Amino acid sequence: MIKQSDNIVFFGGAGVSTESGIPDFRSETGIYNTIKRYNRSPEEILSHSFFVAHPDIFYDFYKSTMLYLDAKPNAAHLALAKLEKMGKLKAIITQNIDGLHQLAGSKRVYEVHGAVQRNYCMRCHEFYDAEYILKADGIPRCEKCGGIVKPDVVLYEESLDELAINASIRAISNADMLIVAGTSLNVYPAAGFIQYYKGNKLVLINKSETPYDRKADLLIHDSIGKVLGEVFDD
Q: Is 113 a known active-site residue?
């Protein structure tokens, strides 16, 4: 399928980064099921209203569970970067916020949920990197004006990046091959992206079942890094 395609789009979720040591959210060992000490749901802690009302608790949770700055790209990230360099892969659409696709060398990456590497002062919009957030004592504050620094990630109650959404839809609509991996395809609106694909090379790679399995032209229940890594074994 890859050999026959020259406009491939990849759409990935949390499962793409688990092989880099970053936990997913909703599995048995995911973030949502392993954090007990807050007596609040992760959905509540990661909401916009909670961030505004309790930034101290938000950042205690965020820095301890959401930042994996030592993580490295795995075989899946590296394979996708190679496909892009070959001119076959035209876009990566990711629900992840870890920036590992760019670290692997990919250039056209649409981050629909934002990225931990980008952080801005809510008052003066000064930029700060993820290291600044991680090393801050308590609530990260702007060195220029003292305002609270907020990660450029989409929290519950916030809208997805409209530019990234529109670019993603355009890319999928024009793709001759769509590879979907590491996502349950249960979370909308991102899960609805797949309906914009009109081709006949829809590939789903996921360890568990998804609502779209029956619509796939090729369905693989296996490790994403293993499957994509084998593309370049020869």
A: yes
Cβ neighbours of 119 (radius 10 Å):
23
Spatial neighbors of 111 by CB under 8 A, at least 6 apart, are 94, 96, 97, 161, 164
- Domain segments of the chain: what residues? 1-21+73-113+159-234
Write down the architecture of domain 1-21+73-113+159-234 according to CATH.
3-Layer(aba) Sandwich (3.40)
> Of 101, 113, 125, 221, which is the active-site residue?
113
DSSP 181: E
pTM higher than 0.85? yes
Cβ-based neighbours of 108, under 8 Å, separated by 6 or more: 84, 90, 91, 92
Tens of pLDDT, residue by residue over 119-170, are 999 999 999 999 999 999 999 999 999 999 999 999 999 998 899 999 999 9
